[in-house]
Amino acid sequence: MTITFVGHGYVGLVTATVFADFGNKVYVIGHTKEKIDNLNRGIIPIYEPGLSELVKKNVDAKRLIFTLDYNPSISESDVVFIAVGTPTTKTGDADLSIVLGVAEKIGQNLKGYTVVATKSTVPAGTNKKVQRILDESKPQGTEVDYASIPEFLREGSAISDTTNPDRIVIGIDCKRAQDLLIKLHEPIKAPLVLTNFETAELIKYASNAFLALKISYANAIAKLSESLGADALKVLEGVGADKRIGNKFLSPGPGYGGSCFPKDVRALISIAKDNDYPFSLLEEVENINHQSRRDIVRKARKTLGDLRNKKIGILGLAFKANTDDMRDAPAIDIINLLQNDGAKISAFDPKSMDTAAAVLKGVDYKKDAYEAVRDADLVIVLTEWNEFRELDFSKIKGLMKSTNIIDGRNLYDPEQMKANGFNYMGIGR
Ligand code: UDX
Fold first, then answer.
1. Is the beta carbon of 151 within 6 A of some atom in ligand 1?
2. Which of 58, 313, 358, 411 is deepest in the core (most CB within 10 A)?
3. Domain 210-425 listed as CATH 3.40.50.720
4. What residue ranges of the chain are covered by domains with CATH 3.40.50.720?
């Protein structure tokens, strides 16, 4: 098939590349010439394991074409995916202006029969607006059907999440489009959830909010464990062993971040409010998430007292490992709070130094973990990079001014760290 993706963020770029790798001809529309030129040379704007090689392979095979133009990409396509951003407005709603603007341009360039599917995370009811725009803007004699196909890929494991998802959700109301989309997704072996538009749209928000809820629950249990002298990791291991609960997304830490959970939880609260349902459960999920970030700072204050001119070494800046993404990373709030208290911050992250430098000022960025902890009064680990698991702690002890370490991701064994002479503080143990 020939397909087009509008948008080359994580979702657009990864899904488009995977569909090209399945043998389809895939156009990807962007709006910045420099980025499109780079992509056509196989240079990708994000760090995602394996993606750069896969993009290059499919660009070289001429199956993956990056373009600024809606024509001939849209007119040639059997299926067009909308995969553009839905940022949060000041009121917490999802900003749909980009999605709706793109829908109009797609509509104007349609030819023959096309299925247009939204991959962007949009509130229930958006499909009707997109459908109306497509119908109003399409040339006479063309036919268009609409579908909602939410995306569940995670950064850092985006390719395998796309080729091996837990499910494929398709919101659709027409057999012809359904058959075409099932055929397109045939190489992906996963259970199909076929449903109406509103249900598909809500499945995405409900899933992300539930995962965020699990994390905030784990963080609340961690907080309580600290007061009770329990080991939160063991508590959550015991809880997660119950198959009805499951052990995934129960790791306590500095709170969830990234481009999806914070935004989608906020949007679902706002959607609920608009529908006269105060989703206070999710408001508390957000509160606990903010507290989890502040709790790291509280631990720093408790350990060092006055933070003025204290040197704090931060290991890890990205919102999670295996990405260079700094969007809503806990490190941003935590470092800002520490800096407000007068602390001097040095930091290292294996991949996100450039993206971090754009959002975090006044930080002394170092070339490796050892340089970041040199002369530190306190070290705080904020991202669970594998390379931080293998650090030489006798070397670290020699480099630090003090022995204080807050392990925000529970990477290390508390007993071992204490035996090595560190004043070790984990999350929930
Ligand atoms: C998420 C969803 O998982 C994915 O399905 C959706 O398509 C996009 O949003 P992503 O943002 O890439 O994916 O990251 P994810 O791995 O889900 O982690 C989100 C945040 O939660 C990170 O900050 C991570 O560190 C945190 N987290 C995750 C925890 O603090 N504890 C956990 O147990 C799991």
1. yes
2. 313
3. yes
4. 2-195, 210-425
Q: Whose CA is nearest to atom 30 of ligand 1?
A: 256
Angle (CA) 189 191 196, round 5°: 130
In this structure, the chain runs to a length of: 429
Q: Which fold has domain 2-195?
A: Rossmann fold (3.40.50)
Within 10 angstroms of residue 227's Cβ, the number of other Cβ atoms is 7
Q: Which of 50, 30, 53 is nearest to 42 (CA)?
A: 53
Distance 217 CA to ligand 1 centre (A): 14
Instruction: Tell me, yes or no, if 174 is annotated catalytic.
Output: no
Is there an atom of ligand 1 within 6 Å of 260 CB? yes
* Residue type present at position 238: G
Residue position matching structure tokens 């023959």:
112
Nearest CA to ligand 1 atom 25: 320
**Ligand 1: residue whose CA is nearest its atom 21:** 256
178-189 tens-digit pLDDT: 999 999 999 999
Would you state the structure tokens that stand for residue 104, as one six-digit string?
């109009």
Least trusted range by pLDDT, from 83-97, 146-160, 181-195, 366-380: 83-97
